[in-house]
Amino acid sequence: MAFPAEGSKGGHQSEKYSVSDEAQLVPLIVSAQDVEIGVIEGEFGQEDFAPTLLGILDIPDRPRFAEGEQILLTGHVNLEVILPEKGTVEIRKDGKVLESSGSDNQFVFYGLEPEKSYTIRAVLDSGKGLAEKEKEVFLKTDSVIDFGKKGTGEGKSAYSSTESKAGINFAGISEEGNSIFGRNSNHLIGYFLIGAINLAGFFIIMKILKKILKNHLRPLKKLHIS
Question: What is the pTM of this model?
């Protein structure tokens, strides 16, 4: 909220207020496990909040209609790989195999080093061919690779809101002590936090509107003529 002068009314929407530092430089303070200490300066929008929160919770998937970008606050990125049917996925870096996991069609690899290139190789158990058996990816943030859908690149989710993720095979790269149950609980925590933030915002808006209406719709006093 910006105030042009002492004692004046504040605002943030009109051009008069929106160009001010108070309206544009809104701090976001995060305290969570694996979040590196420091200050990140840049131009971000509220649409970036959901991808960033999911990234902190190590959930590489994104909401269907999310247009924001993840602000990388941890020292690692995560990669989800989706196959059209059960198979094996191998991830390589500099020609060396980092991890290989099979007998599933969905995999999540945790703790990858950001700003690096990786080779993702997929082989189906049925022997059916894939359009692309290998993909080269450069990971800046959490990403999703779908070998079963054409035109689905890294960093975008291939899930719809009705699809189940119960069969995901979690393959850790560098993190320890993270079980399947722990990761699924992170999903629930993420959804709960997003819902709680939206609900709190709704009640705050309703409280403000109620106060405005109360001040502007006061009953008129009766006029006595003698």
Answer: 0.62
